[in-house]
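Researcher: Sequence recovery benchmark, item below. Answer with residues only.
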């Protein structure tokens, strides 16, 4: 019993709070005749001013003055403010017009702080989901502007005047840094709009959230790997065709780039309003790699051509064996390619065509000179081994000289038919061997020309595609509004 008596004594000594009865009496006096449907103004012809603000931490700030909630604090024990549930008071029906929330209003109903001068402060937290048009033209170097439009749903501008609380826009002091987006700002603007449904003007406050995508992730995980893969495609033009891996390398790089692009496609926004900048770049690189595979097939086709199947056209000789090697500063062993040698070669070909056109028909058919039709060649003249045909005059002269070198003139009449046949067979064998050697040299020369043409195409593709990759990469980076945002 002693501890209980001590506790009762202490309770009687504590000061009694006088706020409870005064707040109760004040609430009964204020809410006795209060109507939540009544717009709290002294004169119905005047609009009620509502100050609206937004803090970028899931908080909105609404403040107005209620004419019916004023009192003298001295009459109620110095009570200067009250916390009243919003369903007991009139509050402006300010909602977000472009809300995408299922319940349309995603705020949590908190108490309204009412002061003795009639000012009411309503700060409901919530998660706001709005509809926003996304422009992906410069993805991933893009800036996005998303509007959040707040306004009264039923009161027009003549009844409720919505005023921007801070001219600078929303409060960004409590914003938590995001890893994907960089916040540029959140300006606000007051708008007065007359809709088609109603003649009265309606006031709204629109906050524009300006954000910029951080590009460091996309730069090192998408752009750099794509540039490296495209650079590997350029190495295929430096690989010798005889290695057998030239086409395999190109196809492997094409397949690896295709798999990589499938991963990238999952990152890109799935919209058809515009083509993203990154998608344009990847399509260019994909086209370049596919073209390199096609040209690799052309190079291999040129490299393995032979004289008995393909004949090199004159335009290929002029372009791939003369002018293009001269532009690319290429040379062949034993053949110096300069502008002077090219012009001299073309001049010699023209003279040869004129000379052949001036020959007689028989000389052109037999590919011999006109002098052989009139007599033996001059002693100091040299006959080409390519004109040793079985029925050509050169062949008869060579056969006569060959007989005279082996048979004495005094005994020519006594040579038997067998010896004459053997000498004739030996002559034919020499002619056959000479023709085969000449044909082998010509075929080797043609094969060498085709291989050099393939080498020229390889070198040309290396320069062109290297230049294309550099220009495409630089053009994409320079056309972007910004490059790296950490």
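Model:
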């Amino acid at each position: 019993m002693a501890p209980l008596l001590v506790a009762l004594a202490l309770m009687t000594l504590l000061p009694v709070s006088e706020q409870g009865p005064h707040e109760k009496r004040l609430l009964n006096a204020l809410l006795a005749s209060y109507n939540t449907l009544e717009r709290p103004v002294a004169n119905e012809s005047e609009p009620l001013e509502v100050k609206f603000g937004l803090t970028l931490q899931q908080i909105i700030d609404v403040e107005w003055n209620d004419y019916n909630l004023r009192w003298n604090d001295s009459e109620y024990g110095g009570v200067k403010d009250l916390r009243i549930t919003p369903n007991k008071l009139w509050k402006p029906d300010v909602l977000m017009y472009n809300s995408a929330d299922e319940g349309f209003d995603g705020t949590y109903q908190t108490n309204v702080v009412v002061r003795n001068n009639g000012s009411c402060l309503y700060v409901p937290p919530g998660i706001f989901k709005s509809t926003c048009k996304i422009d992906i033209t410069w993805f991933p170097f893009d800036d996005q502007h998303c509007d959040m439009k707040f306004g009264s749903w039923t009161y027009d501008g003549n009844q409720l005047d919505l005023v921007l609380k801070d001219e600078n826009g929303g409060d960004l002091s409590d914003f938590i840094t995001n890893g994907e987006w960089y916040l540029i700002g959140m300006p606000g603007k007051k708008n007065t709009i007359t809709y088609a449904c109603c003649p009265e003007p309606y006031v709204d406050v629109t906050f524009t959230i300006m954000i910029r995508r951080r590009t460091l992730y996309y730069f090192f995980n998408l752009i750099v790997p794509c540039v490296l893969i495209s650079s590997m495609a350029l190495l295929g033009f430096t690989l010798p065709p005889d290695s057998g891996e030239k086409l395999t390398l190109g196809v492997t790089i094409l397949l690896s780039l295709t798999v990589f692009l499938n991963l990238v496609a999952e990152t890109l926004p799935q919209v058809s309003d515009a083509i993203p900048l990154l998608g344009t770049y990847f399509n260019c690189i994909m086209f370049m790699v596919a073209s390199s595979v096609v040209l690799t097939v052309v190079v291999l086709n040129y490299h393995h051509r032979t004289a008995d199947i393909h004949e090199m056209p004159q335009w290929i000789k002029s372009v791939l064996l003369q002018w293009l090697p001269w532009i690319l500063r290429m040379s062949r062993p034993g053949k110096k390619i300069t502008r002077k040698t090219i012009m001299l070669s073309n001049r010699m070909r023209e003279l040869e065509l004129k000379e052949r056109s001036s020959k007689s028909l028989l000389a052109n058919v037999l590919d011999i000179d006109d002098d052989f039709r009139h007599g033996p060649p001059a002693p100091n003249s040299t006959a080409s081994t390519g004109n040793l045909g079985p029925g050509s005059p050169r062949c008869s002269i060579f056969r006569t000289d060959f007989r005279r070198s082996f048979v004495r003139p005094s005994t020519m009449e006594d040579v038997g038919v067998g010896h004459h046949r053997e000498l004739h067979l030996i002559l034919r064998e020499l002619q056959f061997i000479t023709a085969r050697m000449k044909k082998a040299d010509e075929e080797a020369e043609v094969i060498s020309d085709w291989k050099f043409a393939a080498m020229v195409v390889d070198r040309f593709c290396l320069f062109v595609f290297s230049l294309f990759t550099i220009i495409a990469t630089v053009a994409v980076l320079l056309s972007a509004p910004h490059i790296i945002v950490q």
